[in-house]
Amino acid sequence: MIVCAIDDLLFSIKIKEAAKQLGVELYFERSADRIVDTVRDKQPSLVIFDLNSAKLSPMESIRAIKADASLRRVKTLGYVSHVDSATIAAARDAGVDDVLARSAFAMRLGDILTSA
């Protein structure tokens, strides 16, 4: 199970199509207030964040997941515009496990989904 905290329609479709082809179970959470509860309920192997999402407050969710002893082990991955160095630094400060540029995320999507 992979939880996606993504509100970008293009990437949501891309991830859904890849997951369907690979037989990977996904759950999309599009409410900032529900992300941590969804992670607690679903116990995913990975949470994927769109770090550029203003609506989903990814840094707050990452901090909350990593601060919770029962969720800390859940792997987090964020993708971001490669030129957005401030967001990359903020995600690392929040405790994200891995950060990829959008282009690298798209190219490695199959591997990301199957290795989670």
Explain this structure:
The protein is of the alpha/beta class and 116 residues long. It has a domain at 19-42 and 58-78 and 94-116. 48% of the residues lie in helices and 19% in strands. Helix 1 links the parallel strand 1 and strand 2.
Instruction: Please state the average pLDDT score.
Output: 95
Low-confidence stretches: none
How many whole angstroms does the radius of gyration measure? Answer: 13 Å
Q: Tell me the number of helical segments per DSSP (H or I, 4 or more residues long).
A: 5
The largest β sheet comes out as:
5 strands, parallel
Spatial order of strands in the largest sheet = 2-1-3-4-5
Assembly level: single chain
SS strand fraction: 15-25%
Overall form: globular
First-last Cα distance: 8 Å
The computed structural class is alpha/beta
Q: H/E element string?
A: EHEHEHEHEH
Number of strands: 5
Short description:
The protein has 116 residues and is α/β, with parallel strands linked by helices. Helices cover 48% and strands 19% of the residues.
Output the keywords.
alpha/beta, 5 helices, 48% helix
How do the strands and helices of this protein lay out in sequence?
Blueprint: E1 2-5, H1 9-22, E2 26-28, H2 35-42, E3 46-50, H3 58-67, E4 75-80, H4 85-94, E5 98-101, H5 102-115
Parallel strand pairs: 1-2, 1-3, 3-4, 4-5
Helix pairs in contact: 1-5
